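S.,

Sequence below, as promised.
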Amino acid sequence: MAVVLRLKRMGRRNRPYYRICVMDSHTRRDGRAIEELGHYDPINPEKGRHFDLNEERAKYWIAQGAQPSETVTSFLKERGIEIPVNRRKRLRANKKAKS
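The prediction came back faster than expected:
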């Protein structure tokens, strides 16, 4: 079972709101989450208040091998959380560099 950190869309039409969740990689976007770590409000203009994250639990799941999506990665970097490079991504990058 591959575990990922990704966004789950909530809210209404034209007013999106997202939850930052830990999910199985095979679960649909708005499906059942293993754990919810925070939320993201793209409409809120206040810098630093547009998302909330339980950093301790995020670090735990990353240590367990969970792979964050690109958007969640940017949130983690904004909070100063280190993300280890996935071995598969490193190999893919090396192949592209050799070509």
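The chain is about 30% helix and 30% strand.

Coffee later?
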